[in-house]
What does this fold into?
Amino acid sequence: MKVYDHLIVGAGLFGATFAHLARKAGKKCLVIEKRPHPGGNLFCEEQSGINVHKYGPHIFHTSNPEVWEFVNSLVPFNRFTYSPIAVYDGKRFNLPFNMNTFCQMWGCTTPAQARAIIDAQKQEALSAMRTAGATAPRNLEEQALCLVGRDIYEKLIKGYTEKQWGRPCAELPAFIIRRLPVRFVYDNNYFNDTYQGIPIGGYNRLTAALLSGIECRFNEDFFSRREYWESQADKIVFTGKIDEFYEYRFGALEYRTLRFEEETLDTPNYQGCAAVNYTDRNTPCTRIIEHKHFECFGADVYTTPKTVITREFPAEYTQNSEPFYPVNNERNNSIYEQYKKLADAEPDVIFGGRLAEYKYYDMAPVIERVFSYFE
Ligand code: UDP
It folds into this structure.
């Protein structure tokens, strides 16, 4: 007899949600986490009365009412709407690409004018692709040119993306840029989803509610006592790196990591919004996050005298840094497929989440994935 039904490796969103639903189903769970805190990259730290997203900004968005009801039953969410600003060459643009952006870019005012400009630029891109023998966009650069044309690609996408991923846009997968909406209406909401918000009081409340009543041990690395941990439970839910689980036998998967420079400023309102993206190549950071805007709106921004900002610098991942973004190019995807074959044949291990599924995952699909194990 093992001590636990499930050993859950990693207290991030996948692990915490799995533990929550397994406990509800009457299973005995142990969660182990190598960091000193739960929540994975959702973790926030309170500074000067502000919840600081320590591993990059997280905005919850979904069109799935079941997921939205689930998270709101644990902690109510606020009405935050992500509307970042892009800065290129000192000029400000609204994101995602919408009538405000087109008006700022070309001075056009009607959807018909904007469409005409974008269509002309798209045609150029399409005919260049056809000449090269391609029928569909083969990479992020071709995809971006086909979506929004050259002006927007060069000013708002190319520099940001190449800083973010450390690779030319022509060597990146097209799906990354399809995350961004293109709209011929004046609407700066970054997401198309029905529901969006931040847990009131911060993400740590969501994590605490998910893990309530569950045994958790922190500063525990699965790999430092693997045999011992494996002996503790009937089933393992593994949310760490799949290549590490298999001792890198097919090679190491690549990631992008992030370096954060955090600063507390003696001003209540530094940039007037949660995120400003620096889309040129010369500014070394990709974006500046001002954390209070996730939870304070309107005049409430002035109720705390200080503000906390974080500059984000993407960097190449090394084994000692945090793996943030999977680099889903052909090489890595084919290595991942080899690991996945082993994982699929593993009767007592469930692999889930960004690192174990090697997937550029938003939060809501992570929860949907966990739901699928309990249906
Ligand atoms: N992107 C861009 N310009 C921007 C913001 C995003 O070109 O100002 C591109 C970039 O390639 C990025 C992708 O869109 O990797 C997805 O952006 P998203 O904001 O979804 O990235 P995340 O929040 O996950 O870092």
In short: The longest strand covers residues 255-265.
